[in-house]
Design a protein that fits this description.
alpha/beta, two-stranded parallel sheet, DNA polymerase, domain 1, 14 strands, 10-stranded mixed sheet, TIM Barrel
């Protein structure tokens, strides 16, 4: 059978695999064995499935392929951060980042090739969206970074954030399927509480994940609590006004009892005035939340400059005065363009 006509075996469910073996006059539990090799052990070739007979491996080879990723290029930052250029089976490239600290290692995962949104300050937004990542391509990034964490930092991966390339909630089906594989005992067995999905703010999809009772955390890229300013920064926000976003966040909290985290970059002359601070404080009062104030990472746009330290401190003090949890997040991996907003396949485009 030609490779092009073979089905990617990881598109099959466990029941599909069991049924395949029954139809080929074998025992159904073979499907369980194959499923374990694929999703718990992350095996990328049939020959590596050593508890299967040679005849069984040949049968799988005849009917299926495993369209796995490959690390095409790896860069290491002075602060220990690792950026991966990840080649997909069709030779498209995405980027993922492994971020170590003294107590944890966090995988920053991509969900789309490029992005269909138009955030002015984000390098990924300069690339057109070419396609969604499949569930197995998302899963493979996590497996690869878990291996890197064990190799370079002598511990397994502890946390996952969907803050890489793309808007995760615009690839919802594959996102959820990947997280299922990452968290299931038959998969990687990671706790959903260690996973955070970041969205630019799509109210309809935020309500859907609340209705679906997902167990991961939610972060929202806010950047301004003034509609005119947010719309300038994120033009798509014209379709998703702050009132709608606030309603969706309240809906999320009512359904899940989980507070949301606001990701908030402060730029000089854009959102660093007292009225910007007051607007954020008022927005945060509506629903329990946390705020991450993020250091800006330049992408070559003269329009955006990092705010002065005293303006970030003013934000921090105003939020703390209202007992709103706030963290000032220093960027990691800036020297290799691996920090927030910098993922853009620069090496590939050059």
């Amino acid at each position: 059978m030609e490779t092009e006509s073979k089905r990617d075996i990881r598109s099959l469910s466990l029941e599909d695999l069991r049924q395949f073996f029954i139809e080929n006059e074998d025992k159904a539990f073979r499907g369980n064995q194959v499923y374990q090799w694929l999703w718990q052990k992350g095996t990328h070739d049939f020959e590596g499935m050593t508890n299967l007979s040679k005849a069984t491996r040949s049968l799988l080879e005849e009917h299926f392929v495993i369209n796995h990723i490959a690390i095409d290029q790896q860069q290491k930052s002075n602060d220990g951060t690792i950026k991966n250029a990840v080649k997909l089976h069709d030779d498209l490239i995405v980027e993922s980042v492994l971020i170590p600290t003294a107590t944890r290692t966090t995988a920053c995962v991509s969900s789309q090739v490029g992005c269909s949104l138009d955030c002015e300050f984000c390098a990924t937004a300069k690339i057109k969206r070419m396609r969604n990542l499949n569930a197995d391509e998302i899963y493979d990034q996590v497996v690869a970074m878990d291996q890197q964490s064990r190799l370079y930092f002598d511990r397994p991966l502890t946390n996952i954030v969907f803050m890489g390339m793309g808007e995760p909630l615009m690839n919802y089906k594959n996102l959820i399927a990947a997280i299922d594989k990452i968290t299931q005992s038959e998969g990687l067995g990671m706790s959903p509480s260690r996973i955070t999905v970041s969205t630019s703010g799509i109210p309809k999809m935020m309500k859907k994940i609340a209705d679906d009772q997902v167990r991961f955390g939610l972060a929202v890229s806010l950047h301004s609590a003034r509609q005119s300013v947010r719309q300038e920064l994120m033009p798509f926000a014209e379709k998703f006004p702050l009132d709608d976003l606030a309603e969706a966040i309240q809906y999320w909290y009512d359904k899940t009892s989980k507070s949301v985290t606001y990701e908030y970059v402060v730029w000089k002359g854009i959102n660093d005035e007292e009225e910007d601070i007051k607007a954020l404080v008022d927005f945060c009062k509506q629903t329990p939340c946390k705020v991450n104030l993020i250091e800006y990472n330049p992408i070559g746009e003269d329009k955006f400059l990092q705010a002065d330290h005293d303006r970030i401190k003013a934000y921090e003090m105003a939020l703390e005065a209202q007992r709103i949890t706030v963290t000032v997040r220093r960027s990691r991996g800036k020297d290799i363009d691996a920090a927030c907003g910098q993922l853009a396949n620069k090496a590939e485009r050059q």
